[in-house]
Amino acid sequence: MPQRDPFRVSEVASRRTGLAKSPLSRDAIVDEALRQFTSEGGDAVTLRKIAKALDTGPASLYAYVDDMAELRALVLDRALAAVEVDQGDGPWRERLEALLRSYIRVLMTSPALARMSSQTIAVGPNALRIAEALLGILEDAGVDRLTAAWAVDMLSAFVTSVAAEHAQGADPVAPGGPVAQALDRAPASRYPRVHAAREDLVSGTGEERFAWSVDVLVRGILSRAGV
């Protein structure tokens, strides 16, 4: 089946008539789906529920989206419109970290969005807007185009993995959390290195771990690019 152009918003004329109903469109469907994903959670959202909220039947939605997988990609891209890509004229490293923080904050708006980001690839103008900004920042850092292109993919994967890990709203490595408890129960005789490093494995705040991870990634990108 041919793929629809994600940039073409109103490619099908609505068959709905009557003054009581707003015209059905891909924009309306994506907006309602995003509202439901962020307010009700991903598992509760179905095409039937979206259609009901729009006062139409599920079959009507297929004139605009092929299936729920395509709709999820559109919803994720719509959510990414809130990512702040313009980080001013400061040093490239500060702009990179600020963009990545904005990216994570948007994904963590709701657990459903955070989980979706690790399962769905957003393909649309907002995902490309983020990629364009990252490529520009890395270009300012002196990174060659090929390395920068692969780095964008790696940085995006880092952001989505962090968001998904914290999708439940609790730090999985927080003191007293499930990871810390598992480490405390691990017998030293069987896991001597894990036992010795048990406090280090759950040390640091989320911000400290984020900054450390970005630093490691950036150093690797620059080293690879020979900068």
From TrEMBL:
The keyword Lipid metabolism does not apply. GO terms for biological process: negative regulation of DNA-templated transcription; response to antibiotic. Residues 23-83 form the HTH tetR-type domain. Pfam families: TetR_C_1, TetR_N. The keyword DNA-binding applies. This is TetR family transcriptional regulator. Keywords: DNA-binding, Repressor, Transcription, Transcription regulation. One of its GO terms (molecular function) is transcription cis-regulatory region binding. It comes from the Bacteria. Residues 46-65 bind DNA.
